[in-house]
Target: Glyoxalase
Amino acid sequence: MASIETVTLEVADPAAAQRFCTTAFGLDTQVRLRASEAPTTGFRGFTLALTVSQPGTVDSLIDAALDAGATSLKPAAKSFWGYGGVVRAPDGTIWKVATSAKKDTGPATRRIDEIVLLLGVADVVASKRFYAGRGLAVAKSFSRVYVEFAAGASPVKLALYRRRALAKDVGVPPEGTGSHGLVIGGDAGAFTDLDGFAWEAASPALAP
Model:
């Protein structure tokens, strides 16, 4: 079964982006940074979603992100599915922090239970077929709306969402051109998917 092994964000200032990821979310090796000046306009077509255990932890991480220089796209709030909020990092990456719980059951922490890379695609069914053909196993599938792949031992889970629906969910217009600013590393090999997202053969983790 193929899976994601690395997620690399292409940014203008990798050192600054690393400081943000560490300060805001406590992420270190889970997300890599690579220098790039490739132009991007508008929505880059993907979101990194952090799943946590309770609303207090959502607030803790969102507040830390805002203190580290992020911009609020959707303030943390309750909804029918739980509680969550969305921010845009200084490098342009959109981060969603959410929980299915609606009440706290203990003190707020900074623990992240799951990292999900959400790709906004034009045709969920076609992209599902494409990725299944590359060896990724489908874990959940909701018709033409949403697909989630099995993560296995990967630190990041891959999911597909319609591009317009994903943009609406995070509070931005769906239009965007230029580089996605994202390279996905995995054991499925090097390729470019139907929506222009690039994959590369995963390399070993960098030494600290």
Observations:
- The mean pLDDT is 94.
- The CA atoms of residues 120 and 163 lie 4 Å apart.
- The two ends are 28 Å apart (CA to CA).
- Residues 4-201 form a domain with the 2,3-Dihydroxybiphenyl 1,2-Dioxygenase; domain 1 fold (CATH 3.10.180.10).
